[in-house]
Amino acid sequence: MRKVWIAPLCLAGLSLLGACGESMHAQTARAIDSVAAIDQENMAEMMLAVSDPREAVDYFTAQSQQFPDRVIFRRGLGKSLMRAGQAEASIPVWQQVLEHPEATLDDRIDTAEAYIRANQWPQAEAMLNSVPPTHETYGRYRLEAMVADSRQQWDRADSFYEIAAGLTPTPAGVLNNWGFSKLTRGDYRGAERLFTDALRQDGSLFTAKNNLVLARAAQRNYELPLIEMTQTERAELLHTMALAAIRQGDVQTGRALLQDAIATHPQHFEAAANALAALQ
């Protein structure tokens, strides 16, 4: 009798072990999938952070085709296309991202930026208007300021630039944009102050250095500001100031600045040399 009872127990044990084996297999498969997903996300972030834009476009294009349901790769493709200077080509990709169930409000903001870079301002404004006002981010207000600039709504632009600058630990870029907005309006002193503030935040931002020189030259101040600069940067800034002086009719000053730029540059400064030859 004992053997009769043992057989069913053994069968039950084997059945239980089989069920446990199936459960363990499923758990292992899920764990592997989770690790693979994390690895894919890490790889996507790395490609966006350090990769050459063209390499990133190729990577995200391939991944989007292999994993069409994963929004992370479509999103990465859209960002990579914009980094590669192909904003218009990124717009259909961003539209696909927005149709995905995992799309976020930040995706709408990135889409608005793509429209701005493609010079499609009405579409950009409409996209920003679709973002709830409670979604207050640096990226959103930076773009809102640019749209307001395009409509020459100066008070509105100033308000948005100020908010954006307060929402980021690295405001140099938005301060430079704000300064350029002031420069285009003819508020040269205001522009000079903002470019100086941008350089206090990031002394390596050459666009802010160049814009600062333009703001000073517009006030007929033809002395370089007291900021850190390399010898090559000094030559290029002298060249910028020279051209601004010539455009304002201060030709003799412009000629002297061009000569200084040529003498300062550690190599042959062809652009300045050509400008000086044209004057003579």
From TrEMBL:
<keyword id="KW-0732">Signal</keyword>
<dbReference type="Pfam" id="PF13174">
    <property type="entry name" value="TPR_6"/>
</dbReference>
<dbReference type="Pfam" id="PF13432">
    <property type="entry name" value="TPR_16"/>
</dbReference>
<dbReference type="InterPro" id="IPR011990">
    <property type="entry name" value="TPR-like_helical_dom_sf"/>
</dbReference>
<feature type="signal peptide">
    <location>
        <begin position="1"/>
        <end position="26"/>
    </location>
</feature>
<protein>
    <submittedName>
        <fullName>Tetratricopeptide repeat protein</fullName>
    </submittedName>
</protein>
<dbReference type="InterPro" id="IPR019734">
    <property type="entry name" value="TPR_rpt"/>
</dbReference>
